[in-house]
Amino acid sequence: MHSQTGVEDDRELVSADPCPGLRGPVIGYQGFRYGRMPPIQRLLMPSPIVRVMFGFGAPVLTMDTVARASASVLSLASPLKLTATVGHHTGRVHGLVVQMTPIGAYRIFGVPMSEWNEPFLDPVHLFDRSLAGLPERLAECPSWAGRFALLDRLLTARLVEAPRCSPEVAYAWRQLRATRGRMPVRELAAATGWSRRHLERKFREQVGRPPKAAAQILRLWTALQLQELGLPLARVAADAGFHDQAHFNHVFRAMVGSPPTRSRVERVFWDGAADR
Fold first, then answer.
1. What is the Cα–Cα distance from 257 to 255, expressed in whole angstroms?
2. Which backbone phi and psi does 167 adopt, to 5 degrees?
3. Rounded to two decimals, what is the model's pTM?
4. What is the pLDDT of residues 216-242, one digit of tens each?
5. From 38's CA, which of 9, 53, 87, 94 has a CA 20 to 30 Å away?
């Protein structure tokens, strides 16, 4: 377990790996606590990670940067998203985030990922009886270690009886990840022996997006990693699989709501843990 604390701004950030039986489907846990602070904006970019946040403190005003829809949320289930979101808070925010692969989330919660796309979805709507009261139980734990241990126990039990992912979907997702979204969908379908339409339907169910959309998220994710290294945008676009910089700019604006140069300056929060 790793932790960071800040005395001056009264914050606490804690991260931990899941127990060995969950590794793979579950990427990690992140706990956070912010005391009274000046107003903060945190930008969450589209990524190939599913995040489920359980809030214990004040709600966070969350807005889609493209659609401009907004809601005040305490807890939030975020599947593979095609658009960025920004959270606004003024302090006393307390909670925990579970990071999962899309297939891991599908298996653990037993709910088709296509049903996760409701805007600002509260994770309690995904729970069955075995997870009833989970946010309250997490809030009542006296320590981060206790919260992570509770998640280990409950999620491991869920995984034992979880639905299986189709081998074809698992293979196609691995290929998309390995090529960072650059493998054509027709080649994916041919490799699985399925029709393109059938692969798209199963991907929506078990990953949350059809392969073409998932590939676009992976290409943007790759571009963000390259941009964080300070590479020129033309190089970022080429190395991430875009036709040219104009194509990258167009896709970036469509998914983030601003051009990449502006977002590079304003981006406050970006989590690069997809390949952990």
1. 6
2. -55, -35
3. 0.90
4. 999 999 999 999 898 999 999 999 999
5. 53
